[in-house]
TrEMBL record:
Gene3D superfamilies: 1.20.1280.290. It is found in: Endomembrane system. Keywords: Membrane, Repeat, Sugar transport, Transmembrane, Transmembrane helix, Transport. Belongs to the SWEET sugar transporter family. The chain crosses the membrane at residues 20-38, 50-68, 80-103, 110-132, 138-159. It is a multi-pass membrane protein. GO terms for biological process: protein homooligomerization. It comes from Vitis vinifera. GO terms for cellular component: endomembrane system; membrane. This is Bidirectional sugar transporter SWEET2. The keyword DNA-binding does not apply. The keyword Ribonucleoprotein does not apply. GO terms for molecular function: sugar transmembrane transporter activity.
Amino acid sequence: MSRSLLLPVNTICKDAAGVAGNIFAFGLFVSPICSFIYAPLGCFEQVRMFGLLMVDIVLFLVIVVGSLEISDFTIRRMVVGFLSCAALISMFASPLFVINLVIQTRSVEFMPFYLSLSTFLMSASFLAYGILNNDPFVYVPNGAGTVLGIVQLGLYSYYKRTSAEESREPLIVSYG
């Protein structure tokens, strides 16, 4: 066996921790997608969700195959790192629409507490992991996610005190 194939023990442990964390996070974010696909919705919604899932899988495979075509490891790391940062920041920024709705309606009924809590905890743990490993591709987007998670939890604690009767406004008005 050549010497270049052997890895130091601390590299193996560091990579194992990253892989385990990513597998756990992947499971957290894939389980709601699977529940939407198998939920008793109308046929159109199920086909739409399945189509979106297939688009995500194809996009992921294109990124994997495309990144493996880049022979220089440093350039490959930069390309995949920037793509991952963009994806994570867009994922963490998506609840901003719900935050706007919470402020307008003064109700947290559209912002699930456990989703906000799990997003904050996952972001904070990966922020610490990225800082400890000095990896800006991990700590920059997760730092943004941690701040947005704190904002969500703060809004939840502030607006949960508002009575449900005062704040319930319909999202869609029916005139039928």
